[in-house]
User: Fold this.
Amino acid sequence: MRVNLWIGGVISAIVTGAAVLSFLWVPHDIEALNIANKIKPPSGAHLLGTDHFGRDILSMLMVGARTSIAVAIVAVVIGMGLGVPLGLAAAARTGSWLDEVIMRGNDLIFAFPSLLIAIMITAVFGPGAVNAIIAIGIFNIPVFARLTRGAALSLWTRDYVLAARVAGKGRLRISAEHILPNVTNLLIVQGTIQFSLGILAEAGLSYVGLGAQPPVPSWGRMLADSQTMISFAPHMALFPGLAILLTVLGLNLMGDGLRDWLDPRLARDAR
Amino acid sequence: MLRYAGRRIFSLVVSLWVASVVIFLALEVVPGDPAAYMLGLNAQEDTLNALREELGLNGGPVQRYLSWTGGMLQGDFGTSYTYSTPVSEMIADRLWVSLPLALYALALSTLIAFPAGIWAARRRGSVVDLAIMGGTQLGVAIPNFWFAMLMVLVFAINLRWFNAGGFPGWEGGMGPAIKALTLPAIALALPQASILARVMRSALLDTLGEDYIRTARAKGLSRGQALRRHALRNALVPVLTIIGLQFSFLLAGAIIIENVFYLPGLGRLVFQAISARDLIVVESVVMLLVFSVITVNFAVDMAYAWVDPRLRGRR
Assistant:
């Protein structure tokens, strides 16, 4: 089944392409307010219509894609950067106090719903894109730590790891040279999924005003802005939501497709 | 079983303790003095001091931590800085919205997910299976607050079947209150139902491949009978875990959905408290939510170990 990978890949490429393109060109300047032209339904000049400040919604979506993608990517990098080494360390010393501390720490973070972490962080440091990244990133750490530990544990029983130990390699070197390369596929698949969850989380946070602050456009806040006007300007609510839906759907399909492609054995398990 | 329970209770207590320390420390570094906030810019130094004393803000961190947790153990969550009412009362009021909402959503999600997952598993590979799985892909990808807004547009604004928001309270009877929670509960349930349906399907497919199903079929049970009597029961273990985990997502997810529908629940309480720098309220609500998540997961774990002795040995 390569269909998933194709559809997902194409959607993700379009969204990323639109975000990159927005650095060079957008249909209309999003900082120019044009009140005379406010809340116009889709037309030839404004393909997706205009918002309550007369800004072009398509342009806003393109620039907003940057925020979503940036927040979600950095959050995945944080989660991988901390979670993978922790998971490798826990697996290398399974049963030790280190393993215990790492796994209990994971459980603890899991016990805080991610949104609560975000709320606490914003209560402490104030709202903003950086704090949204931290909040989403923290929640990614245990996901990657668990995944890595679980996969690494089974790899540690393999013959080639035994061979490496016999050859005199230390636990650290084995983790880096033999375990890590073999969990990469899993990490890529999980990374795609966490990336899509990050997009959703960022949208939720900025919807309640805890994400990127104005004037930085974000899909979640566009939805929040549209809420009071939904009865007479449904297009303002429709398109940002569709943008989130399509992006997340594309990434999920791509994740499924990647899993099938990279690891046929896993694909069979998942089905 | 007892040893297992003892170990789990120990780790439950440790988690709660660590969580309370983390929450306390996190809010300890927040800039701003609640007393100054309450009294305004022109307050006298001695009035400020008196109020700080009254709020218990003057002691050292350790002393304040102990009085905070000690109070909570006795059901005393302190006094709100902005409303001067006991936090426990505020929370109790709001809980009557958030908890029913979460339970309502959980019920809906289970009611949708079980038939969908079972149906998809029974007709694996068919058009029905494809349609259900496609639906769940959409369900997990859709931002639920956006779905909520669309439902408001269709069912509240256009069709006028529901109110667009607000909550009449339970005093006016069950009917209006439940009606007010229906759209929020559907919005909350949608992504959870999608996840649950997928888990249900894959768990069933796993058990349907087991030897005991073949045995059951060999002794003459129909596919449906084997599924009901043997596969379904064994598939329930992973499904129950997910339901337990979802409870926490529902409580937390309610924070955003409550904002869409202007429901006076815990979520809105937290937001109001953050903007008013009413930290004792934030602290207590977060602690309460974390407490319920940890306890629910603990209860699920214990339920399993009781049902399935094989799980007691595992960590």
About this structure: Chain A touches chain B at residues 104, 107-108, 111-116, 119-124, 196, 200, 203-204, 207-208, 220, 223, 226-227, 230-231, 234, 237, 240-241, 244-245, 248-249, 252-253, 270-271 (CB under 8 Å).
